Here is the input.
Amino acid sequence: MTFLCALSVVIALVPLAFILFFVLRQGLPALNWAFFTEMPKPVGETGGGMANAIVGTGILIGLAALIAVPIGITCGVYITEFNTTRLAPAVRFAADILNGVPSIVIGVFAYAIAVLPFRRFSALAGGVALGVMMIPIIVRTTEELLALVPSSLREGALALGATRGRAVATVILPAALPGIVTGVLVALARVAGETAPLLFTAFNNRFFSTALGQPIGSLTVQIFTYAISPYEDWHRQAWAGATVLIAAVLAFSLLARAVTRRLERMHRG
Amino acid sequence: MEDEASVVDQPGIRIQTAVRTDAVPEAERQAITIRNVQFYYGEKQVLFDIGMDIGENRVTALIGPSGCGKSTLLRCLNRMNDLIEGARIRGEVKVKDRDIYGAGVDVIEVRRRIGMVFQKSNPFPKSIYDNVVYGLRIAGQRDRRKLDEACEASLQRAALWDEAKDRLQESALSLSGGQQQRLCIARAIAVEPEILLMDEPSSALDPLAAVKIEELIYSLKERYTIVIVTHNLQQAARVSDKTAFFWLGRLVEYGATPQMFTNPREKLTEDYITGRFG
Here is the structure.
């Protein structure tokens, strides 16, 4: 029995190990400072980098967070604190379904609402697509963590003459904050690696751009484009991009843990 | 003076719901008057026709076995039961001659005037200082000097100042259990309530910490009217001026504490106090 369990653990971890091994083996040699600072070179010229895509991914997940964090947290608060009986189960269910919608479909949705009306691919549309993907994760995290806040804190605040809204803003949300921050960071890490929803929203851009109304490059789409190209040099760039992406996602997870620990220590004293 | 509110037949036992005020001066001022209170959780009635007066600057203990309705009654006094879905109350609860369930009554205002301390200490995950001044801040007090003064005065009154004065900015959760409960008392009295409700305030504490809370209750009654729910009969006997005994949602006997514990009128009270059931 113990052996079977140990075997399952090994089988579960093997893909992770292989992914890390191959990406790092192919990607690390291709990584250099120029990769972070330079723009892509035309086919035939070696060297160059993905500075535009790295900045693009940063802008895209920043936009996604701006859209999803306020909506997600407000929604989570509403169903746990204000409308617990009727709406909460429905919203929970809807969030789970939205979470399960294939990301390409979310891309189509964002295309319909944020690309078609303006007749232009844009960073904003990419941000909307990623934001829509983040919302259900944040709703669920917020809701689960608020439910973990002891009701004695809620009662304590109300007994001192706080209104419900005041109690939420000053006691309940702060108490759940470490977990919510972690949830947001995990959601960010998750959408940072998405390609499909960006293909026809943010599109791609071979030039450096920070304009929200213009198409924008992203690491994932750039990796995709380079990986399916016939050029050896582009393949190496794609591996380097994958390495950077994995490192970034890992950094988010570590940051999430560090922030959680820090905030928890502040609370515990 | 005996006010026969109702007489209820129980199989084999005759319970009188009565208000007795013997051994208490006639001139005593009443902080809370409760009349004909019925309370329901959904279809289930948990309080039957409660009527009692609670004297100003007195400690009134509510005793009785678990599920007898004493905590429910306590939570009727600051409308904390409003938060429970399906909870309903009939009857009248007057605090200083104002019906707190009357039309147009501001619940927030009621809860500000009537402080509450819970069984399990519930400090907010904030600094000691922020805990104590929480009620004042949400009431709109922004003046740092006033907050500082209120913080010190409340902690002094809650006998926590000496232990906490050098660590006001530390997390309240770094305090011990007994200190946390005294902090919650400080937090409740910081808003200068007229009445302090305590729901088994020391039942989760070790005996030494519990004694400190009792001493505190004794010193607080000069300024506040205190209503305390307790399972600990010795505690009721030690700290309270009057005691009310509840059984199955009914007020069985209410009178001066010494008399209740030495010479109760009702057989049921005597059985409970002498430990024959409960």
Remarks:
- The interface with chain A takes residues 78, 80, 83, 85, 108-109, 111-112, 115-116, 118, 120, 122, 124-126, 134-135, 137-139, 170-174, 184, 187-188, 191 of chain B (CB under 8 Å).
- The first helix of chain B runs from residue 70 to 76.
- The longest strand of chain B covers residues 30-41.
